[in-house]
């Protein structure tokens, strides 16, 4: 019998310490391969990274101000950015219904961040036409960098919760945008924890993405990843 998989599996690694970007990238690709073929339920992967710079597909050399930085090339959209302590990273790894509408997916992910920051933390956030992510005026609080392969998604959201403004993003032009700045929830007067943000964010993501998801059918049991420890 084929069973319809409806739940979203959440892998929340926030209480297991800082993670290397490469380890999380390997994990997301393993999950993506299984989700794309119906062997694993749709999954939200949540973590806090060690300090790391990554360069997306649209990175220009002039976006990197410090040539000595170690930068990891990625296949997500967007330019160069930073991940590290105080930043919540969430990868929605889901199978989308065909035909995939990329714009609807991007707007749904951004919408989940908007819902979370407005409804749960009272921040006056919005989007800017022609620019990805979530903003407070000309201050970017959350970046969105995505990829879709085999109708299944990779990469996702980075949300600045309590990053150190003196060190975060130093040495690069974040997202290649020269006429704006980067901010965090703490800098906007909302001190909180990554765990406190993760719960409403995953709920908002599930709500926003549900209309876009493909019904996933599997033969027999679905193998679900459970992190050790």
UniProtKB/TrEMBL annotation:
Coarse class of the protein's main subcellular location: cytoplasm
Active site residues of this protein: 175
Pathway(s) it belongs to: Protein modification; protein lipoylation via endogenous pathway; protein N(6)-(lipoyl)lysine from octanoyl-[acyl-carrier-protein]: step 1/2
Entry superkingdom: Bacteria
Catalyzed reactions per annotation: octanoyl-[ACP] + L-lysyl-[protein] = N(6)-octanoyl-L-lysyl-[protein] + holo-[ACP] + H(+)
The protein's Enzyme Commission number: 2.3.1.181
Amino-acid positions noted as binding substrate in the UniProt annotation, renumbered to this chain: 143-145, 156-158
Site positions for Lowers pKa of active site Cys: 140
Alphabetized UniProt keyword annotations: Acyltransferase, Cytoplasm, Transferase
Subcellular localization, as worded in the UniProt entry: Cytoplasm
Gene Ontology molecular function: transferase activity
Residue ranges of every copy of the BPL/LPL catalytic domain listed in the record: 38-213
NCBIfam families: lipB (TIGR00214), PRK14345.1 (NF010925)
Other remarks on this protein: In the reaction, the free carboxyl group of octanoic acid is attached via an amide linkage to the epsilon-amino group of a specific lysine residue of lipoyl domains of lipoate-dependent enzymes.
Its job: Catalyzes the transfer of endogenously produced octanoic acid from octanoyl-acyl-carrier-protein onto the lipoyl domains of lipoate-dependent enzymes. Lipoyl-ACP can also act as a substrate although octanoyl-ACP is likely to be the physiological substrate.
PANTHER family, A to Z: LIPOYLTRANSFERASE 2, MITOCHONDRIAL-RELATED, OCTANOYLTRANSFERASE
Family: Belongs to the LipB family.
Protein name: Octanoyltransferase
Name of the gene this protein is made from: lipB
């Amino acid at each position: 019998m084929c069973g319809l998989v409806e739940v979203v599996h959440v892998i929340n690694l926030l209480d297991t310490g800082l993670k290397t970007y490469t380890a999380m990238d390997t994990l997301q690709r393993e999950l993506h391969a299984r989700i794309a073929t119906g062997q694993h339920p749709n999954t939200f992967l949540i973590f806090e990274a060690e300090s790391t710079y990554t360069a997306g597909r649209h990175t220009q050399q002039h976006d990197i101000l410090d040539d000595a930085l170690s930068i990891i090339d990625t296949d997500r959209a967007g330019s160069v950015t930073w991940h590290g302590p105080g930043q919540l990273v969430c990868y929605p790894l889901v199978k989308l219904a065909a035909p995939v509408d990329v714009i609807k997916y991007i707007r749904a992910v951004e919408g989940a961040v908007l819902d979370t920051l407005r409804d749960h933390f009272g921040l006056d956030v919005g989007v800017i036409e022609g620019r990805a992510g979530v903003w407070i005026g000309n201050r970017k609080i959350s970046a969105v960098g995505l990829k879709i392969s085999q109708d299944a998604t990779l990469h996702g959201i980075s949300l600045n919760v309590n990053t150190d403004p003196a060190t975060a993003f130093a040495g690069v032009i974040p997202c290649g945008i020269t006429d704006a700045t980067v901010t965090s929830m703490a800098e906007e007067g909302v001190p909180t924890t990554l765990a406190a943000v993760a719960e409403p964010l995953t709920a908002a993501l599930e709500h926003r993405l549900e209309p876009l998801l493909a019904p996933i059918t599997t033969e027999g049991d679905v193998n679900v990843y459970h992190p050790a420890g």
